[in-house]
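Protein: AAA+ ATPase domain-containing protein
Species: Bythopirellula polymerisocia
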Amino acid sequence: MASETLHAPVHSNIPSPVASSARNCASQDSQSSSSPVRFVPPDPESLEETGLNEHDLEVLVLKLLLKRGTVSGRGIAERLHLPRPILQQSFERLRSELMIAIKGSSGLEDYVFQLTEAGFDRARREHQHCSYAGAAPVPLDAYMEGIANQSLQQSSLTMEKLRAAFCDLRLSETLISQLGQAINDGRGLFLFGPPGNGKTSLSELVVSAFGEYLWIPRTITIDGELVRLYDPRSHEAVELPQLEEISYDKRWILIRRPTIIVGGELTMEQLDLQVNPQTGISEASVQLRANGGALVIDDFGRQRMPTSELLNRLIVPMEKHHDYLNLSSGRQVAVPFDMLIVFSTNLEPSDLVDEAFLRRIPYKIEVEGPSTEEFVALLHDLASKIECNCDPGAVDYLLNKHYEPTGRPLRFCHPRDLLRQIRNYCEFHNQPLAVTSQTIDIAVKNYFAGL
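Structure follows.
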């Protein structure tokens, strides 16, 4: 059975299978013209430079030993992502306080540590308050400085960069220009139009035009509260050969500029810090995880909360470029709000919000369906890619029988989806892969039903 994916690299308005290749094009273009890393977090050389205090490190060491039992000094340093000389002072203090003891040696000038009875009691109390024992956190001030040094506001797009981001797609100059203006403005945009024309895919690809990577801390500390920022479900870590040649703060991780997509499931609670009562750790809000990239609110207007409530929550941070989040203590804290917000909807923007709101989102870009010529070209191009023969007149048959009589609108997703149906049918019945009037009728019956 063929394993090739039906990609649709013909127009900007094609769903997500093209995202990876287009992102690669943008990445190659950016890296050929400029450094992919604009900022590097400096490696701390002292406890003061970590932004933490003695108590912070001691607690992490104790909880790590509580979980692991016995760990070498080098192993503790690796798990906390800190230089061992900085931790050496913590080891000595904990030994003098009879919290830890040496179990044995571990290579040159290193030892294996374990908890004493007193250390076990203290570690258990700290673990009940907060179970986190991973990479040492980065203070909020250092995070804010890092985001400022990598801000999208310091990046600007040109027509050439945006073309590179969509190098696998056929994209009109008008649409490229509209997107570029909106992105450089940085205050958000509406993408609207009928479903199936690739608004979500456009949103995913836009941030790749910047072509740069982003450093973020794995965890940040805010007034003693820990917030887990790096999320493998939202962030894609990257490893560059250059990193092996430089010194940097290992508490930070290099990622691709993120694109966080939320849909109808978005709730007001997700726009704030969410404390896990069992672990004592807060999970970052969706907009905090999107810093330095893009936040895409898909299916805007279908969220559980009213659209006015959602816009009221986001409109001021969009304009001021900072947000306020609530800590578990009840205190509010200011955090960066440095991202492109994209509202993607199948509905008319004027049907969702009033004129005052629309004025504050300056760019409204309509993503339209294909012309007949574009639709035909797309179907032939995709069929060629999967080595599918098209009978003469088959595409005309599709249009004349299944589109024109019913007034069914053309969508950029239809050629890909119909070809997938045809391929599945031919493979199952062990027939040559071909677009014929018979396979078209079968695909249309399966795919459209009552649509």
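Remarks: Residues 1-24, 26-34 have pLDDT under 50 and may be disordered.
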